[in-house]
Amino acid sequence: MDKLRKTYDIEVTWRAYPLQPDVPEHGLPMARLLEEKGLLITPEQATVNLKATAQSLGLPFGEGQMIYNSRLAQEIGLWAQDCGRVHQFHDAAFKAYFVDDRNLADNAVILDLVAFAGLDVEQAEEVIASRSYADAVDRDWAKARELELVAAPTFFMGDQRLVGAKPYPVLEKMVAGVLGQVQR
Predict the structure, then answer these.
(1) What are the extents of the domains in the chain?
(2) Per-residue pLDDT reduced to its tens digit, 114-168
(3) Could you tell me which residue ranges the DSBA-like thioredoxin domain spans (predicted)?
(4) What is the torsional sign of CA 80, 85, 86, 92?
């Protein structure tokens, strides 16, 4: 007898996380950031580790020699979520940052990503000028501190938490486990 499959609608909500919030808008070389944090790893080792993780997940990864402030991208990301294009924007932002080494604190870069994601560039310019999503990012950052988040991504579903980039089967197992709890 074939097992009946149920389908579920899962709503994904993106939240801003303070990724290196003290990095200036023009960015920092990764070597300097590692040194400032007192980490005993070379930029080359860090890049090799990040590339290996990305490769294991089937994701591209560039050389990553610079670290940029992502605050503006987070604000526009929350706006993109309200516009129903959050996944398109985040996909473009991740590629720009992690593959193409583009500065997400640069308005021109953000507006390129907005256009690529199919969002209205003039509206995005207004959002940037008014910083109308700054308070929403502040609230997300406060929530991240409250939840003691230590890494991005962190996934929450029900009372489950999954930290770090994981392969799809790991996420699938989390969903199945939570759905199993709900069905009891």
Answers:
(1) 28-146, 149-184
(2) 999 999 999 999 999 999 999 999 999 999 999 998 888 888 888 889 998 888 8
(3) 1-174
(4) negative
CATH of domain 28-146: 3.40.30.10
d(CA 44, CA 30): 9
Average pLDDT, the chain: 90
Rounded to 10 deg, the angle between the 86-94 and 71-82 helix axes is 150
Kindly state the tokens that stand for 114: 């907005």
For residue range 74-101, what is the model confidence (pLDDT) as tens digits?
A: 999 999 999 999 999 999 999 999 999 9
Q: Which helix (H) or strand (E) holds 28?
A: strand 28-29
